[in-house]
Structure formats: C-alpha cells, structure tokens
Write a structure and sequence with these properties.
8 strands, 2 domains, alpha+beta, Endonuclease, Chain A
C-alpha cells in the first residue's frame, strides 16, 4: 500500500510538473508570436458551413456552388489555375454582371506550366472583363480561396484544377453568410492583389 501511495504521489508530482512545463511552453510560444508580430483573428459564426472532399466527393461541386451563388462580386486567390469548369463558372458569373477579380501564383501558372491552360483561362477571363493579376512576391502564393458577395468564403486545400477534383485528396469548406470573415479574407486578398501584376493576353 505504501508503494502504491508513493507511486500515486510521484505520478501527481509528474503531472503537476508536466502541467507547469506545458504552461511555460505556452508562455514561450505566446512571447515568440508577439516578438515576430504574428497575429490571428477570431471571428464568431452562427450560419451554415458546408464541406466537400476529393477525389469526386463533392469538393468541386461545392466550389462551383459558391461561385454560382454570386450576385455582385467574386474575389479569387489561386495557386494552380487550370480548371476549365471553374473558369466557365467565373465567366458565367461575369456574363450575368458579377464583378470578378483573381490573383494567382505567377511561377506556377506562367513559368512552370507547360499545358497552356492557365494562360488560356486568364485570357478568357480578361477578355470577358474580369481583372486578373499574377503575383511573384512570395516563393509560393499558395492561397486557394473564393470570397463571394462580401459575405461567403470558400477555402481549403483545393487547387482550381482537374487533378484536385478527380485525383488528389483535397478538402473544401464554405462558410456561408459571414460578413466579418469575408471582410478579413478580402483584406488579405486586396493586399495580395495590390502586389500582383496585370495579366495581359496575347490575343
């Protein structure tokens, strides 16, 4: 019994020590974040959230649902932009009077790509009256987000590509009707768009 009591006491000491250690690490982490000037944003939400996955588990359909819901404005951030389906949805939105603007990774779409799909998509969008820029200010511009009507945000790992829809393991989340969240994403979008360069089609 004594051995058991000693064991319990030792365990309690270890737990207390671990808790103190964890608290210390949290303090260290918080100080590190403050020293780097990093920040996060907390936003309340009470509306609907939808999720989809790939391959062929609703991810692309959910992206298209968000785009097709637009009445006035769509803002897109993209790493890889080769999806004819997403391009067609954006063109359809533009044709019904929606203001469409996109910023995409420069290197991935215009330098490394050999298919010509991003150039064709960008050219079609620009010729339809959309604003398109590419950004080279970062080693990789890895954002994959659509903000609709300043109130709905679609994000996740999903690149706007056929591979993301049909071959890769991906996730998509749409947070419907949360203007505060959309405002935060739009601020990020605007900063990246301002750092980009206009895409000029060759035809």
């Amino acid at each position: 019994m004594k051995r058991l009591k000693l064991g319990a006491a030792a365990l309690a000491c270890c737990l207390l020590s671990s808790m103190a250690s964890a608290a210390n690490w949290m303090n260290v982490a918080e100080k590190a974040v403050q020293s780097f000037g990093d920040r996060t944003t907390t936003i309340q939400h009470q509306g609907a959230i939808e999720v989809g996955f790939s391959p062929r588990e609703g991810a692309e359909k959910l992206v298209l649902k968000a785009i097709n819901s637009a009445r006035s404005e769509i803002r897109v951030m993209s790493y890889s932009f080769t999806s004819a389906t997403v391009t067609e949805a954006l063109l359809s939105a533009r044709h019904r009077g929606v203001d469409v603007a996109l910023v995409a990774d420069h290197k991935n779409n215009l330098i490394d790509d050999k298919s010509g799909k991003p150039r064709a998509a960008f050219s079609a969008l620009v010729n339809a009256g959309c604003r398109v820029r590419t950004i080279s200010a970062y080693p990789i511009f890895h954002d994959k987000t659509v903000v609709v009507d300043r109130e709905t945000v679609q994000t996740g790992s999903f690149n706007f590509s056929d591979a993301a829809a049909n071959r890769n393991s991906e996730n998509v989340i749409v947070i419907w009707k949360n203007p505060d969240l959309a405002k935060t994403y739009l601020s990020h979008w605007q900063d990246r768009f301002d750092r980009g360069q206009d895409y000029r089609p060759n035809y």
